[in-house]
Amino acid sequence: MVFWRKKSIMAVEITTVALVLSSLALVPFLQTDEQATSHPCPETHKLFCNSFFVDAVYEPENNIVKITYSDNSKMTSLAALEILGMEETFHKEFSQQSFVEIVRFDSAPKYGWASMPVVFSINHEGLGKIELKTEIHPYDEPKPKVIYSIISHSEQRNTYTEFMEDRETEKNKP
Predict the structure, then answer these.
(1) Smallest Cα–Cα separation from 76: which of 92, 98, 54?
(2) What is the DSSP string of 98-154?
(3) Residue 81's closest CA among 154, 131, 147?
(4) What pLDDT, on a 0 to 100 scale, did the predictor assign at position 11?
(5) Are 122 and 78 in contact (CB under 8 A)?
(6) Distance in angstroms (rounded) separating the CA atoms of residues 98 and 126
(7) What pLDDT score does 137 carry?
(8) Which member of 49, 101, 152, 163 has the lowest number of beta carbons within 10 Å of its beta carbon?
(9) Residues 6+ apart with CB under 8 A from 57
């Protein structure tokens, strides 16, 4: 009888160790590096990639989508957020350089998150009117690519190249 008791205690200990080790193995997977999971930024869009961060993450346990916007250049004067493909389009405007908006959903859409793009229409002091488009994704899936579009150039600068040159000049000033 003592032999069976020792054997069952040992089985519980082995199971506990296995669960702890498997949990530790999953932690790095769940906290993947954002750069490693996102699409590489093409050279022609480096300014956009370095200036803007957008993401839309679905959290199924809470039935919410957490939408994040951040402008590292600090030149956003207005940002309009829209989620298309809903019965009624979600629309909200922000005057901050960064924000996080929580949107409640009853469930994931029938045709997948790709059927509900998230669009940021930005009035940017340096670039003019631009749009950033991405997709909602579950927190455990890689971040989808972001599509960048210049809708109208800034009156201050005629081209994207001028904006980049001015930005580099400002960076290199002592």
Answers:
(1) 98
(2) EEEEEEE-SS--TT-GGGS-EEEEEEETTTEEEEEEE--EETTSPPPP-EEEEEE--
(3) 131
(4) 52
(5) yes
(6) 17
(7) 96
(8) 152
(9) 65, 66, 68, 136, 137, 138, 139
